[in-house]
Amino acid sequence: MTSPGTSAPPVPVLPGQVSPPEFAVSDLLPGSIKGVDVVALPVLPGDDGGPVLLGPGAAELADQLGLDLVGVAEIHGLSGATAEVATVPVPGGTEDNPELRLVVLVGVGGARDTDLRRAGAALARATRDRGAVATSIPAVQDDTASAIEAFVVGAMLGGFVFHWRSDGPEHQPVRRIVLAAPTLTSDRAVIERAVAIGGAGWRSRLLATVPSNLKNPAWLAGQAEEIARAAGLDLEVWDEKRLAKEGFGGLLAVGAASATPPRLIRLDYTPAGVSSRAAKKLPVVVLVGKGITFDSGGLSIKPSASMGSMKRDMTGGAVVMATMAALADVDCPVRVIGLVAAAENAISGTALRPGDVIRHWGGRTTEVGNTDAEGRLVLADALAYAVSELSPTLVVDVATLTGAVKVALGQQVGGLFANDDVLATALAEAGDRAGEPLWRFPLYAGYEDKLASKVADASNDPGGAGAITAALFLQHFVGTVPWAHLDIASVGDVEKEWHEWTVGPSGFGARLLLHWLGTPEPVAGIGD
């Protein structure tokens, strides 16, 4: 709100952002691809401690350059370990490709999907600001479709850039990557799926990185509108008036102090070619994302050191939106509804206070002991609405929820809670395949008494075993519906570059959800 006689500050304009590389597949060897300025070759550990081995195209390129590339690898101390990199300038190019200027040797370790994803990220960092790369790295694995997906995702995310500089970004990702080897599949659908999964990771990371002087609940709803238009999704947005009319007390209470009111965002996906009658018979998966566009802590204000990264407290919402955008690209066979509970947890005269009691959608009440435990308050509304109104087969929520999960897990593994073992297993296995690992925690009923309030159904500040008690709080809003809760506060921020992770908000979760929902029967056995 602005005072009479004053004008609102100008709305910031996000500068144009860089794009991830384009990808193509060729049955030629990398040294035969014309117009590329970089050729990247895989390096594997030698047999029984012998010299390293180079992958497809190395012998041919070595002949063209007149170089002993195995000897070059050894001079650089390469062992073939995953993501090792050595660069070899070739200023004169080759007869086949005069534009070639650099050969990059990249270790691929055991050539598993994880190795290839990390090799892709290492290559992305080694080729920043380059025009085009030809590489045979994915050809070291027999399952070339899986190898291509892993490598492409790593090469995309390892080159992620966000900027708000007046003179443009410091670096650009390489513009084009050609996957070149006779054994690689030319099925365009393989590349499209890989780009969709990598793009979901890119989108969730981008949304989480946008500063909060631009990113607010209405802006997030605008991004959802763009996603719905591009991906053919149905969209519905609740403004503050409708939220009040329908009783979304948690969202309204958390957003009460902000100049930008809360929103509930709904995106609906139905598989292509399914009639409206047939769609009603499909299983329904509901994804719920925490969308706190900035978290000051409210009146229970955060220390300044803890507040600086809070633009990313809507990562759960970003993950849900990015996942929804890519469902068609991974041929998801079930209906999916994405809900994002978006609010800014600010401070003003209308702020939520410790001791206040709020009534959630559906009637359950919460006594507020800590206004910085706001995520569970907005998720509670969305979960209660989903279970009551959307007839879900299962529900999964995603949230940067508790500092306790970071204490328990560090910064490379996300927390998983679930009331269904089959669902928990499916998500954990998808996380392992996607490179977004999860660790399951117990929904330990012995801590239920910590939720007790003398005046309401529960307190939002139970204390002790913080990740578990937060999950127990949420469990009351899903009843007996199969449900999983992903507490990704542990992996919300990346403090130093690590394989496909770049410094800043991580966007963790979209890839694992797409790996799960892109399987032929993602809900099989759940709830049985």
Fold and architecture overview:
There is one protein chain. The protein is 32% helix and 19% strand. It is of the alpha/beta class and 528 residues long. It folds into two domains: 22-182, 3-Layer(aba) Sandwich (Leucine Aminopeptidase, subunit E, domain 1), CATH 3.40.220.10; 198-517, Zn peptidases (Aminopeptidase). Strand 15, helix 14 (421-434) and strand 16 (438-440) form a beta-alpha-beta unit. An eight-stranded mixed beta sheet has the order 8-9-11-10-14-18-15-16, with helices on both faces. Strands 1, 2, 3, 4, 5, 6 and 7 form a seven-stranded mixed beta sheet that branches. A three-stranded mixed beta sheet has the order 12-13-17. It has helices at 58-65, 69-75, 113-126, 144-157, 188-209, 217-231, 240-246, 249-254, 276-279, 304-307, 315-326, 375-389, 403-409, 421-434, 466-475, 510-517; strands at 22-26, 38-44, 53-54, 85-89, 102-107, 132-135, 176-180, 234-238, 263-269, 284-295, 335-345, 357-359, 365-367, 394-399, 414-418, 438-440, 458-459, 483-487, 493-494, 504-505.
The gist of it:
With 528 residues, the protein is an alpha/beta fold. The chain is built from 16 helices and 20 strands. The protein is elongated, with a radius of gyration of 25 Å.
Provide the residue-averaged pLDDT.
96
Q: Mind describing the biggest β-sheet? A: 8 strands, mixed
- CA(first)-CA(last) distance: 51 Å
Radius of gyration: 25 Å
| Portion of residues within helices | 25-40%
- CATH level-four homologous superfamily name of the largest domain: Zn peptidases
Named CATH architecture of the largest domain: 3-Layer(aba) Sandwich
CATH topology call of the largest domain:
Aminopeptidase
Give me the secondary-structure category: alpha/beta
Shape assignment: elongated
